[in-house]
TrEMBL record:
Cellular component aspect of the GO annotation: cytosol
Tagged with keyword Kinase: yes
One function term, GO molecular function aspect: kinase activity
Transmembrane stretches, start-end: none
Lineage of the species this protein comes from: Bacteria, Pseudomonadati, Myxococcota, Polyangia, Polyangiales
Gene3D superfamilies with a match to the protein in the record: 3.40.1190.20
UniProt cross-references to InterPro entries, sorted A to Z: PfkB_dom (IPR011611), Ribokinase-like (IPR029056)
Record-linked Pfam families: PfkB
Protein name: Carbohydrate kinase PfkB domain-containing protein
Domain Carbohydrate kinase PfkB as annotated: residue spans: 191-271
UniProt keyword annotations, A-Z: Kinase, Transferase
UniProt superkingdom: Bacteria
Amino acid sequence: MVAPDILLIGHVARDLLSADPNDGYRLGGTVSFAAVTCVKLGRRPTILTSAAPGLDVSELPREVELYVLPSEVTTTFANVYTDAGRIQHCSARARPITAADIDPSLRRPRAALLGPIADEITPDVAHVLAEETLVVATPQGWMRRFDEAGRVHGKPWESASAILPRVDAIVLSLEDIGADVRRLDPMIEQVPLVVLTEYRDGSTLYRRRDDGTILVTRIPPRPAREVDPTGAGDVFATAFMIRFQETLDPVEAARFANVTASFGVEAVGVTGIPSREAVFAYMRENPFRDGAHG
């Protein structure tokens, strides 16, 4: 069997269209947005997830290879956007994904994205991936807790010490850290690349040098006409992973990711995610000079 090009690990979710489940849902979760992004950018994605039988995955492109671990339920979210930020509720959580679930045929992709949304990826998963695989993580799902009503709240990343040693890059948002950049410090100390996405302000790249010093680069945004912000961080992380795997240039990758995600928010769901050609065209017309500082 040919090794996967891009392996995406995490729950595919049902994102309810309203508070009333009878109104239906669209496919969500980091791996869903990531898979569409991969296809749009010309790469071959493989998803490893867990979900209940009968989940409609017809929204995924036909190019996606899908491995579904059986579960009694499918992870289900409701998202409400307010002026004060996003309010989320999780009414069901599928079974976790462990190292034992990673078939040997899936362990040597060019790049892998660990994209938990409900604390579903156990720490041992990162350690069964091949050493030469570029491993990127979006830790938001490890930084969530759920109250009795299913409302999502932030929490410290308790499994970080077991996961960070095998991760090459971390991508997370201001929301994930409660806008407290001091929470990045343990990640920056252990991971060579950390990218903080900052909504309409673009992103900041933290690069740890061999001598331990940190190089900080602000990556400017592409101005966008926001229609639907859901999944923007997932699109960013996937685009960053792809371009970094191709170029080994984190600044180029972050710029590429900023532009890709900005196009994505200009339409509902995944319909705005751009082609590689559209991203490159914008980048050619709007060159960026690296103003990194230590």
